[in-house]
């Protein structure tokens, strides 16, 4: 008979994201098996992408640590992700630049408004494990993951060949890789916004792509062309096709004909729950009581600009 931990010793199930691998080992055997299978699935995905290689521990080099991050998806799937402890990286040795540009929220709203006005086709996708595509320029070593140390090779470490979640330069490495791939597909990046890419075919028809890290919207006046360019993008990366977007950057998107409505109701509900304010008294507007807006009857004045 196997010993089963007492109920009081089981990890708190209300926040799986706070669990450590040791919490997994305290679960009943059946649940342990499911979570360990999720960890194994993550390691196999990393190996397929050739994210790391097992090497001898180098002398005089810092080896960073890692941890498992667990989550339960909305469909009940158990998800495990191996994350590097980036806070232990040394600036100038393990990384140099870390800033990763993303699309501006104003740009996203502008493109959605333009799509509504011009009745453009919009479709979305997200790139699976996007950071794992980013190639590292630095020489970084990491400990083997807890619970999955290679037998007989316990003293060896992992040399990271590609970016791993948690590394300080992971976002930048992915963006550089994405930027190069968009060039290969014929897209041009907007100078004023690093997350907006534009493609034009021989007839001048545009396809606009809005990218925020691993989430992307493809839109344009010609549905066939938009879907064609999206398919080419998905040939380069392992993606999840979202079809007509219902959500983007925590904004709910509702489309009805030439009207697109966006809101953040779901996100606001999560914030209220986190702050314990679900039953707080609501106010329709932050304007003072008794305020009555009056139309502007003045004349617009053109301001002179000086060279």
UniProtKB/TrEMBL annotation:
<protein>
    <submittedName>
        <fullName>Uncharacterized protein</fullName>
    </submittedName>
</protein>
